[in-house]
Design brief:
Strand content: 5-15%
CATH superfamily of the largest domain: P-loop containing nucleotide triphosphate hydrolases
Strand order of the largest sheet: 3-4-2-5-6-1-7
Helix content: 25-40%
Shape: globular
Number of strands: 14
Largest sheet: 7 strands, parallel
Number of domains: 2
Distance between the termini: 36 Å
Bound molecules: adenosine monophosphate
Length: 437
């Protein structure tokens, strides 16, 4: 029998909001986590973004906070810590949506914007506070936040918080909370460090595991395009001009390249903006909102937007550069095919990145499909992938280095320094449609 939200003992006002949102069936993480949270237990959930984990903690939290409204003055009773500002805002929005028929108040504190407005909201005594750790500690230190009456703590994307070096801040915050609280920890992976963190902060947690540590939604078509570095820009413009690309997120490794690509695309008449950590929070929100509303077709960003960002209708994720860390690949491409729709992930791979591609395929255990008929295809790089050796440097290290052959068509695994054959522009559009839709 298929589960429905009405079997989960949630308040009818929450069920009404869910039905208005068109949510009828709880996702696996929601099915497993909601009853445990409602029973008051501590919980570790291994779940990635896109699995519905925000609702998995928000719904029972709203239910319990509503049921246990204090008779006296309001105070912060639930704290949600997140690693990024965008995620904090997104969680706040979800809480407002699911709790729209309840009378609970939420507030967000995050860095990068002036604290004045946040302090004002804190004075209205919210029930739930969503925060990034640094700004929360600042405001706590200044006496604007009181944490001694927290009943529920959520650590969202706990593995990411550890990666980003938030652990000392998180520990300082947790030391200010009552020990008699419920702690919910969400993480995309269950590493040794997460287990240690859980031990320090939780009491007999129930573990809910809904996805293998690394899994790519089957609805994402994963393709790789072998291309020389110098041709990547032209390839990108070409793909983005295709009508099949409705909304695209383009990832680079550096902020500088994200900016340069954004300028290049704008010059080409493709509406684009860039998002990375050097931008002010207002600029970041403006870019995201323009992307969300479809005012711009392309958002170019670094891994700062690889996690948590939930924009409907991203038809394509393009890895202009492959990430050094294969797990980032999984997070990046998870921005497409949201909420059950289909999506395409295109990864550009130059000669230096063949090793990174192999690392990704080892992690996901899914080989990426090579696009054979794009106009800037490099045979030599495609051959490199087939050979066991990733780059000329690695060949050298293995003591098997041979100088690159002069002729391109020889059966070699070396990268050609010759220009790729000139693309046949007449047939290109037709081919691109077939390839990228
Ligand atoms: P999350 O993993 O929390 O980022 O959620 C991923 C997406 O799934 C968001 O767009 C949610 O609004 C959506 N979602 C969450 N729960 C459900 C559900 N039970 N049915 C349909 N969509 C959902």
């Amino acid at each position: 029998m298929q589960q429905s939200f009405s079997n989960l003992s949630l308040h009818k006002s929450i069920l009404r909001a869910l039905s208005e949102e068109g949510y009828h069936t709880p996702t696996p993480v929601q099915q497993k986590a909601i009853p445990e949270v409602l029973s008051g237990k501590d919980l570790i959930a291994v779940a990635q973004t896109g699995t519905g984990k925000t609702a998995a903690f928000s719904l029972p939290m709203l239910h319990m906070l509503h049921a246990q409204r204090p008779n006296g003055a309001r105070h912060i009773r639930a704290l949600i810590l997140t690693p990024t500002r965008e995620l904090a805002l997104q969680i706040d929005e979800s809480l407002r949506t699911y709790g729209r028929h309840l009378s609970l108040r939420t507030a967000v504190v995050l860095g990068g914007v002036s604290a004045g407005k946040q302090i004002k909201t804190l004075r209205q005594n919210p029930d739930i506070l969503v925060a990034t750790p640094g700004r929360l500690l600042d405001l706590f230190g200044q006496g604007h936040v009181h944490l001694h009456q927290i009943d529920i703590l959520v650590l969202d994307e706990a593995d990411r918080m550890l990666d980003m070096g938030f652990l000392p801040d998180v520990k300082k915050i947790v030391s200010q909370l009552p020990t008699n609280r419920q702690t919910l920890l969400f993480s995309a992976t269950m590493s040794h460090d997460i287990a240690r963190l859980a031990k320090q902060m939780q009491k007999n947690p129930v573990q809910v595991d809904v996805t293998p540590a690394v899994s790519v939604p089957a609805k994402i078509a994963q393709q790789v395009l072998f291309v020389e570095k110098k041709n990547k820009r032209a390839l990108l413009s070409d793909i983005l001009k295709d009508k099949g690309v409705l909304r695209a997120l383009v990832f680079t490794r550096t902020k500088h390249l994200a900016n340069r690509l954004m300028q290049h695309l704008s010059k080409q008449g493709i509406s684009a903006d860039a998002i990375h950590s050097n931008k002010t929070q207002n600029a970041r929100q403006k870019a995201l909102s323009a992307f969300h509303r479809g005012r711009i077709k392309v958002l170019v960003g670094t891994d700062i937007i690889a996690r948590g960002i939930d924009v409907e209708g991203i038809s394509h994720v393009i890895n202009y550069e492959l990430p050094h860390d294969p797990e980032s690949y999984v997070h990046r491409i998870g921005r497409t095919a949201r909420a059950g729709s289909a999506g395409t992930a295109l990864s550009f791979c130059d000669a230096e990145e063949v090793g990174l591609l192999k690392g990704i395929e080892r992690l996901t255990r899914v080989p990426l499909t090579a696009v054979e008929d794009h106009p800037f295809r490099s045979n030599a790089i495609a051959e490199l992938r087939k050979s066991g050796i990733s780059t000329p440097t690695q060949r050298k290290r293995k003591g098997r280095f041979t100088p690159p052959p002069r002729k391109q068509h020889s059966a070699s695994s070396q990268v050609s320094t010759q220009p790729e054959p000139t693309p046949k522009f007449g047939r290109r559009n037709r081919r691109m449609k077939r390839t990228f839709r």
